Amino acid sequence: MERAIRFIDRLTAWFGKAFAWCILAMTLGVGYEVFVRYVLNSPTAWAFDLSYMMYGALFMMGGAYTLSRNGHVRGDFIYRLWRPRVQARIELVLYFLFFFPGILALIFAGGKYAERSISYTEVSVMSPAGMPVFQFKMLMVAAGILLLLQGIAQVMRCLVCIRDGEWMQQDEDVEEMEKILLKQAAEKLAQRGANAS
Amino acid sequence: MTDPQIALSMLGVFILSIFLGFPIAFTLMAMGVFFGYYAYFDPARQWRSYDKLMGSEDPGTFDIVSAWFEGFFNNRIFDLFVNQTYSVMSNDVLTAIPLFLFMGYVVERANIVNKLFDTLYLSARRVPGAMAVAALATCALFATATGIVGAVVTLMGMLALPSMLRARYDTSFAAGVICAGGCLGILIPPSIMLIVYAASSNVSIVKLYAGALVPGFLLAGLYMIYVITRATLNPRLAPKPMASEIEHLSPVKIFVMLLTSFFPLAFLILAVLGAILFGLATPSEAAALGALGGLLLAAAYRSLTWDRLRESVYLTVRTSAMVCWMFVGSWVFSSVFSYMGGESIVEEIVLGFDLSPIMFLIVAQIIIFLLGWPLEWSEIIIIFVPIFLPLLPHFGVDPLFFGILIALNLQTSFLTPPMAMSAYYLKGVAPPGVELTQIFAGVMPYLVLILIAMVLIYVFPQLVFYLPELVYG
Fold it and tell me: What is the ipTM score, two decimals?
């Protein structure tokens, strides 16, 4: 089971990280647009479409990766007081109650929506370049499938936690600066305590 | 039960399920789908193809099952769900969020804080409480550029707090400055919180930025006055450095130091803000330029490495996904909620209390203040603030004004227990011997200052409206 969890984690992280680079494309593309508009006086026809497509792709495809890193906000002021086993039991139920129905709806309804868009190779009406948008709408289904997979991994995580009584260790990954600094400070303190005794 | 009653119970069930600690974005989505399925349920649509099939002769089992499934998914909630998701995906206000986040993460990693703090301290060293003043200014500037609370507080907690303690500053006094200063970034533009508010309230983000500028400086100014006054009145809180400890530096030297640490960052912020306020660029474009500027800045400080760039990119995707998926959930939820008449019944109930506008404002702000104890700003703005927004016209409150009050108010959500992130982060990195109670004691006065700023803005609304009216008529 642990192997399956790690496999799904790596898969969603790969997609999340691959699409994360959209931010760089977006920064450069929009920067270029401003440059040619003011300096060369000839705005591009595609920069606006590019910016929202990059943004949409970025956050949709990052959703599953964020879930695997426990990055979606929870109102955890009571949750954190529980023992891991209790947390896992409740979460296990809630994944079936709150998670899968919504995600399945996203996949099926998104699929129909994208299908319609593909059937006439829809293009954007927001800018003169007429960028195609059907592939952008297909992302909704792709994001839903990734989330579904990650949801299955999370359910397995809960099962492992119920069995072992503690949450599974996560693979190393980039972390927020405050988390890294807090961890370093805690380690330093522990070390000092060990030296003193 | 009537639809509005069901809408109210939907809100109730949702609030209860927040306590279970499940990721809120998905809870919202599920609530929207369940209650929406009920609200939009139409037997004619559900059974149309099934009945037709049963009318024909000898239907196969497979056909019956598939006809049933087709009917099951033939509910308008699914169209609504997809449309709301797509409108978050193609929202042109929210595009600025990943860009500003990216800029923040890049600047955060540019190794700029040490230099900034040292230089500001040297240039302020004749002022009473010089180190606290420098810490406050560093926090404000850095928080404004990054818009991320945790990083500022931890970085300053490792850098400025030990220096202040070594200089025999009072522990509470030193801790309070850092905690409060680090939160200014969510108020002073270009703040990410205001973009989120703009997307949920449909107030123009440009006007919000213009409106938040004066209140932001007002609050920072109040903090500054407080720090200097206390240090003057009670020098024991912030002892003056001995004459031997003061290095003698020529003003030219200090100016050169400022030129390499303070001005580049200040210039970056001003350029981004200026481009937005003078209408030279949309907020997203300005954010992209800011991110490019941040990359240049990091390169100039020789701290732009491949690893740091990668870190910034990956953290950007995670934080953006967190915020934007919550929008997906919230928009699905709230459109079902208002379809069932939830909005109007909330209006009816609130109007039934017959509040005066000032009472309404006070009650609303108290509720938001209380929500800030257990919840984070993102949840409050995306989920709970939209419940208040339809009420504003009844009381003649401008949503722009309301947004600025909230931005001031939410400073407290980082500072008040039980979820005082700012204080906990500081405690986590502080030298041993600094207690949480000391940090909270140091933070208290700032809560009063925030309240004073809110009252000032209520009494003189021109503080908010002057700039937006000046620039946009």
Answer: 0.92
